[in-house]
Amino acid sequence: MIYRTLGKTGMEVSAIGLGCEHLDGKPYEQVRETIYEALDHGVNINIMDVFMPGREIREHIAKALGGKRKEMMVQGHIGSTDINKQYDISRDLPTVQKYFEELLRIFGGYIDFGMMFFIDSDQNYKDVFDTGFATYVERLKKQGDIRYVGFSSHNPKTAMKVIETGLPDMMMFSINPAFDMLPASEYVLTHLDGDHIDGGLFRGIDPQRAELYKYCTQKQIGITVMKSFGAGKLLSPEHTPYEKPLTVHQCIHYALSRPAVASVLPGCQTAAEVKDVMGYFSADEAEKDYSGILSGVRNDFKGSCVYCSHCQPCPAGIDIASVNRCLDIARLDSANISPSIRDAYTAASGSGCIACGNCESRCPFGVPVIANMEAADQLLR
Ligand code: SF4
Ligand code: SF4
Q1: Residue 95 C-alpha to ligand 2 middle, in angstroms?
Q2: Please, what are the domains in the chain?
Q3: Which of 167, 203, 303, 341 gives 20 to 30 Å between its CA and that of 372?
Q4: Residue 135 and residue 147: Cα distance in Å, rounded?
Q5: What mean pLDDT value characterizes the chain?
């Protein structure tokens, strides 16, 4: 297992965690086997998402964790309810409190990351920040019921607004190689309703989505990732918007190579699925490389690095994707570059670019790598 720092929380989280949504409604034995597989996989998996509001699934997970609760960081959602036996979002404080306090009780009296649930629109934003909801969340943190404040979103514009309030310490966001290609004005969840995500809208990685990930790095908002397989559509030959389906490992690699991402939380419902996902750590670079699929579609943003690492190896030992990532973040505000970006640059920059051009001839996205290496040297060294 690889661990990564979740932004300003400073917590070291497993690069792959567990989304528990698909365990809902499953028998306890299946929940236990799935969680055991995750826990037993090499070094323990240490972050999981529990957004489901139902008492039974929450209790099944907590029981399966047993004495390992302290070793597992839990993302628990505030405002997730199942009134009328359906998933619902509530901002009604007594209802919100009832569901969250039950979650607290079930998971040993504290939740590691208290997630303000589902902030996807201006209306959602108002319902959280112009009511007592945000104050309740602040109180939970003060009382130690939650250790950090997080939120979940699928909308880059709204997510940016939430981060600007200064309240959240981290964020859960939907990231995959199809959602990122959709214009920011598209609401990604509507693309999961039909047969497939509409690839006709793809224009290359959307600048506003890319901007969000860089902004998160700058503000030290660590990201955990949901919908990394686009609800399975990206893996399916019938439903993929690309010429061919992506693999589990390509999708995970894509998400993990976005700036600020600390952990991907794929939803697994069996021990076999956990095993498959964890195979990422033993997969070779060719198996994880997603550049061939992305480069086959329209790209209006040629010249922007997608951090795929297809240009490696570099004779000077430079981690080219990492240097480009540092440069992109530094350019957001070149007068205030954080020490962590400078450190990441130093770790990635090898012994200096010798301008051999090998990377540029290999890059399918027309990135001016040599010029970028010079710019990074000037800004970051
Ligand atoms: S041009 Fe520079 S960064 Fe690219 S492969 Fe050669 S040495 Fe590495
Ligand atoms: S320079 Fe090109 S090949 Fe290298 S990481 Fe960036 S987009 Fe990928």
Answers
A1: 48
A2: 3-294 (3.20.20.100), 320-380 (no CATH)
A3: 203
A4: 15
A5: 94
